[in-house]
Write a structure and sequence with these properties.
With 400 residues, this protein is α/β, with parallel strands linked by helices. The chain has helices at residues 12-15, 17-32, 45-51, 73-89, 106-117, 149-153, 170-180, 198-208, 220-224, 275-287, 293-306, 309-331, 357-366; strands at 34-35, 62-63, 66-67, 97-100, 123-125, 155-156, 184-187, 211-215, 237-241, 252-257, 335-336, 346-349, 369-370, 372-374, 392-395. The chain has 13 helices and 15 strands. Helix content is 37%, strand content 12%. The protein folds into two domains: 55-306, Type I PLP-dependent aspartate aminotransferase-like (Major domain) (Aspartate Aminotransferase, domain 2, 3-Layer(aba) Sandwich); 309-395, Aspartate Aminotransferase, domain 1. The protein is globular. Residues 14-385 form the Serine hydroxymethyltransferase-like domain. The modification N6-(pyridoxal phosphate)lysine is found at residue 244. This is Serine hydroxymethyltransferase. Its EC number is 2.1.2.1.
């Protein structure tokens, strides 16, 4: 047979047995173990089918209807469908909200939003990493070392949780905001097990003239299922990953307000939101090249699935499971951060036991239970991400 004509037709097992074996081993690991890492989830066969489709072959720089390559009629339909489903999944009016579904993942989505909304060295405030925030929210170490690009290119000041309760200290946040005068306040986190008071954050943002952005990466599936507070009621921009509680592929989305602004003192009559063009331009061409079309199609599939009764029941059960295991552990005398949870996250404070998250993580690995260590606010070891002595184990309870 002609080797050129038959190139690429061999299945993975024959084309690359080594990689095929590794994939099978990882598949067995996921099936055999109990996967409790809150930032991971099991996606559907339909999503994986879209990810492995011919769409990976196509280049489509630009937005639907304004591409820099030909042959994008089908790609345009797919992306437009994905955008429509994204708005529908979160019950958003297309006249008041728009969405960009091209970000490759959550961190690029966040930085694209910052690039669109801010100038270099503008001031931002986000939840401190040891308090449960994310690296992309402006984290730098206690010694002043800038860890993320967000803290390198913008001037950041973190707000924190109360050392006594583990809850966000909104009064201290407001005090800091009045003094620091940020242009952007970021809410949302990676290890915060409680709902957010978006109304309070909106009031603070308005008081200092800041925009309010929510990174709902961890809780987006719960928001879609109406099992978590809704950031869209109060925020100007909302970003998210799509593979955590949303159960989609690894991708990102940026939602933004559009259309007329509500009447406000000191605001010109007829003012409109101007985020759409800025955000689209920040994603491409400022930070990315062509979008990953197989990813966007897979996301469209996942968004359709979030609107089914089965997904809503799943999200409700995930939350109930997390509450149940947190309550059970506390009934045995163990300490949970914030004394429980209101979402899918459970954070077990190991300091009273004299243990580290690293040791418990490794021990659970031996039992085929996968979870991850986290920092706890106020602990001296929590000076940088991924330190081996983080004194907390974070996990969630999912049913697949």
């Amino acid at each position: 047979m002609d080797p050129v004509a038959t190139w690429g037709l061999t299945p993975l097992a024959g084309a690359d047995p080594e990689i095929h074996d590794l994939l099978e081993r990882e598949k067995r690991r996921q099936r055999r173990g109990i996967e409790l890492i809150a930032s991971e989830n099991f996606t559907s066969f339909a999503v994986m089918e879209a990810l492995g489709s011919a769409l990976t072959n196509k280049y489509s720089e630009g937005m639907p209807g304004a591409r820099y390559y030909g042959g994008n009629d089908v790609i345009d339909e797919i992306e437009n469908l994905c955008r429509a489903r994204a708005l529908a999944a979160f019950r958003l009016d297309a006249a008041a909200w728009g969405v960009n579904v091209q970000p490759y993942s959550g961190s690029p989505a966040n930085f694209a939003a910052y690039t669109a909304l801010l100038n270099p060295h503008d001031r931002i405030m986000g939840l401190d990493l040891p308090s449960g925030g994310h690296l992309t929210h402006g984290y730098y170490t206690a010694g002043g070392k800038k860890i993320s690009a967000t803290s390198i290119y913008f001037e950041s000041l973190p707000y924190k949780v109360s050392a006594a309760t583990g809850y966000i200290d909104y009064e201290k946040l407001e005090e800091k905001a009045l003094d620091f005068r940020p242009k952007l306040i970021i809410c949302g986190g990676s290890a915060y097990p409680r709902d957010w008071d978006y109304a309070r954050l909106r009031a603070v943002a308005d008081k200092v003239g800041a925009l309010l952005l929510c990174d709902m990466a961890h809780i987006s599936g719960l928001v879609a299922a109406q099992e978590a507070a809704n950031p869209f009621e109060y925020c100007d921009v909302v970003t998210t990953t799509t593979h955590k509680s949303l159960r989609g592929p690894r991708a990102g989305m940026i939602f933004y307000r559009k259309g007329p602004k509500p009447p406000k003192k000191g605001q010109p009559e007829g003012a409109v939101y101007d985020y759409e063009d800025k955000i689209n331009f920040a994603v491409f061409p400022s930070l990315q090249g062509g979008p990953h079309n197989h990813q966007i199609a897979a996301l469209a599939v996942a968004l359709q699935q979030t609107m089914t009764p089965g997904f809503k029941a799943y999200a409700k059960q995930v939350k109930a499971n997390a509450v149940a295991i947190g309550n059970y552990l506390m009934s045995k005398g163990y300490k949970m951060v914030t004394d429980g949870t209101e979402n899918h996250l459970v954070l077990w404070d190991l300091r009273p036991l004299g243990l580290t998250g690293n040791k418990v993580e490794k021990l659970c690995d031996l039992c085929h239970i996968t979870l991850n260590k986290n920092a706890v606010f106020g602990d001296s070891s929590a000076l940088a991400p991924n330190v081996k002595n983080d004194p907390c184990i974070g996990f969630d309870i999912k049913i697949a």
